[in-house]
Automatic annotation (TrEMBL):
The organism of origin for this protein: Cucumis melo (Muskmelon)
Record Gene3D superfamilies: P-loop containing nucleotide triphosphate hydrolases, Signal recognition particle SRP54, nucleotide-binding domain, Signal recognition particle, SRP54 subunit, M-domain
Catalysed reactions, semicolon-separated: GTP + H2O = GDP + phosphate + H(+)
Keyword Oxidoreductase: no
Database matches in HAMAP family: SRP54
GO biological process: SRP-dependent cotranslational protein targeting to membrane, translocation
A GO CC annotation given for this chain: endoplasmic reticulum
Protein name: Signal recognition particle 54 kDa protein
Secretion signal span: none
Family, per entry: Belongs to the GTP-binding SRP family. SRP54 subfamily.
Keywords on record: Cytoplasm, Endoplasmic reticulum, GTP-binding, Hydrolase, Nucleotide-binding, Ribonucleoprotein, RNA-binding, Signal recognition particle
Length: 441
């Protein structure tokens, strides 16, 4: 995809006269590429119409950077299409919410329920899982196994065949136990069948969920719109989670799901494991959709904000891909100073949303300072190691003692380190373009 779009834009910038014909050719090329990424035909056509309204041919002809203008217009349009205009219902910690998951069989509901519960549990919530899938044999066992692994309370039955009854019993029980996030996993079918939708409707009516999340497999292709719409027509879908983004699919179906449900994407699934789950971030997602690579904006930013003399060192570290605790320390230091590098670091996917959530800067800063105090109690060997296993239990205890913090907090910091190291490692072997060498798309 990236290739054909860059080719289209390249052709355009080679053309001496930028007229409507050239712009059309270029947009047609982009259209073909987006269709290959599973973006629905109607959406692509709408986008094309909007772009034509936005892009001013006179601007293009006047020698402005044409590629940049079109690139930016396409990028912005796609971002806009992923924003339904209103946020989804957001559960509040300490206040009971019921969240129901729906989607076809195999889309990743059960896995995602656990990820969602685990994500909140790590932030101090009291989640619980209810298995209302009585359709598939083994469904309860699967949920039970996941829940046990994550130490999350669960409810279900091997005997009862009425999903509504189980759902109601489970929700009641966990309300009594003061759980603040009661998650109801439901069954799916291979196809969109009347029986499935009737069941969804009944479970929803009986449990009165505060939020219904539609789970969609990113690889379903052009079927996304109809599927999302079918679910929306039976239950009040309020948010979307797209799974299997670690696979080949670029996830263009997400645009369809947003359009069909008028609900935002809130998380994406990036693997089979419990922690392979990310808060949805529009810009990196669109970059990926366009084949721009997650890092092109990032590299632009580096050249823009990092002083020239500091660039080689930072870029060298990035391309080596080895994220040590010392690098983390330095990054936190510049984040706290809000220096230029912090702007770069916070653009890494998963860093700004998780480490420095908007509106909670004070809290986050205190956390970073706490982490740095603990790192101050580490030896050079520990700070420069690329093997987190080095910091074993006895070292953690020593670090905790030395910094006057709890071992639990050292463990928490190491988890954060591992998460950031994983993000950072994606930079490994990256060919670093010099300033001005960035390709457009
Ligand atoms: P359900 O039928 O909707 O409940 O789907 P499951 O949760 O049972 O998931 C179906 C399969 O997809 C399982 O093998 C999961 O491990 C796998 N799966 C779910 N989410 C992801 C993901 O984000 N990435 C990958 N690679 N696999 C996933
Ligand atoms: Mg399931």
């Amino acid at each position: 995809l990236g290739g054909s779009i860059s080719r289209a834009l390249q052709q355009m910038s080679n053309a001496t006269v930028i007229d409507e014909k050239v712009l059309n050719e270029c947009l047609n090329e982009i259209t073909r590429a987006l269709l290959q990424s599973d973006v629905q035909f109607k959406l692509v056509r709408d986008m094309q119409t909007n772009i034509k309204k936005i892009v001013n041919l006179d601007d293009l002809a006047a020698g402005h950077n044409k590629r940049k203008i079109i690139q930016q217009a396409v990028f912005n349009e796609l971002c806009k299409m992923l924003d339904p205009g209103k946020p989804s219902f957001t559960p509040k910690k300490g206040k009971t919410s019921v969240v129901m998951f729906v989607g076809l069989q195999g889309s990743g509901k059960t896995t995602t329920c656990t990820k969602y519960a685990y994500y909140h549990q790590k932030k101090g919530w009291k989640p619980a899982l209810v298995c209302a899938d009585t359709f598939r044999a083994g469904a309860f066992d699967q949920l039970k196994q996941n829940a046990t692994k994550a130490k999350i309370p669960f409810y279900g039955s091997y005997m009862e065949s009425d999903p509504v009854k189980i759902a109601v019993e489970g929700v009641e029980r966990f309300k009594k136990e003061n759980c603040d996030l009661i998650i109801v996993d439901t069954s799916g079918r291979h196809k969109q069948e009347a029986a499935l939708f009737e069941e969804m409707r009944q479970v929803s009516e009986a449990t009165k969920p505060d939020l219904v999340i539609f789970v969609m497999d990113s690889s379903i292709g052009q079927a996304a719109f109809d599927q999302a719409q079918a679910f929306k027509q039976s239950v009040a879908v309020g948010a979307v989670i797209v799974t299997k983004m670690d696979g080949h699919a670029k996830g263009g179906g997400a645009l369809s799901a947003v359009a069909a449900t008028k609900s935002p994407v809130i998380f994406i699934g990036t693997g089979e494991h419990m922690d392979e789950f990310e808060v949805f971030d529009v810009k990196p997602f669109v970059s990926r959709l366009l084949g721009m690579g997650d890092w092109s904006g990032f590299m632009d930013k580096i050249h823009e904000v990092v002083p020239m003399d500091q660039q080689p060192e930072l870029l060298q570290k990035l391309s080596e891909g080895n994220f040590t605790l010392r690098i983390m320390y330095e990054q936190f230091q510049s984040l706290l100073k809000m220096g230029p590098i912090s702007q770069v670091f916070s653009m890494l996917p998963g860093v700004s949303a998780e480490l420095m959530p908007k509106g909670r800067e004070k809290e986050s800063q205190a956390k970073l300072k706490r982490y740095m105090t603990m790192m101050d109690s580490m030896t050079d060997e520990e700070l420069d190691s690329t093997n987190p296993k080095l910091i074993n239990e006895s070292r953690m205890m020593r670090i905790a003692r030395g910094s006057g913090r709890r071992v639990q907090e050292v463990m928490e910091m190491m988890e954060e380190y591992k998460r950031l190291a994983k993000v950072w490692s994606k930079m490994k072997g990256l060919k670093i373009p010099k300033k001005g060498e960035m390709s457009a798309l």
